[in-house]
Specification:
The protein has one domain (5-98): Transcription Regulator spoIIAA (2-Layer Sandwich). α1 (21-34) runs parallel beside α2. By secondary structure, the protein is α/β, with parallel strands linked by helices. The protein has helices at residues 21-34, 50-60, 74-83, 92-98; strands at 5-10, 14-16, 35-41, 45-48, 66-70.
């Protein structure tokens, strides 16, 4: 049996939602099966719904794997803020964005 490669990057484009999540789930699980680390660049996401959010949570909770979400599109940040799941996804960008800004 071949050992998994260390890391891989994915860059989904367009909608991350109910109509695309089945295909993306297959792709992400395949990548997680072959790699120890997965970086998912969310900069190309134009829309996201709760099905997309569930896919992100599934990937993040995959035992023995490291998944990082980077370059979050505004649509993704808005949903993470609304669902208050930035901490559950270990998202330092979201945490930094929601800190109160000092007033002058």
């Amino acid at each position: 049996m071949k050992a998994p490669a260390s890391a891989m990057s994915l860059r989904p484009q367009g909608e991350l939602g109910i109509y695309t999540v089945a295909t993306l789930r297959h792709d992400w699980l395949q990548a997680l099966g072959a790699h120890d680390e997965l970086e998912i660049d969310l900069g190309g996401i134009t829309e996201i719904d709760t099905a997309g959010l569930q896919l992100m949570l599934m990937a993040k909770r995959c035992p023995g794997k490291t998944v990082r979400f980077v370059n979050h599109a505004d649509a993704v940040l808005r949903l993470l803020e609304l669902a208050n799941l930035g901490g559950a996804l270990g998202d330092p960008l979201l945490v930094a964005r929601t800190r109160p800004q000092p007033q002058e």
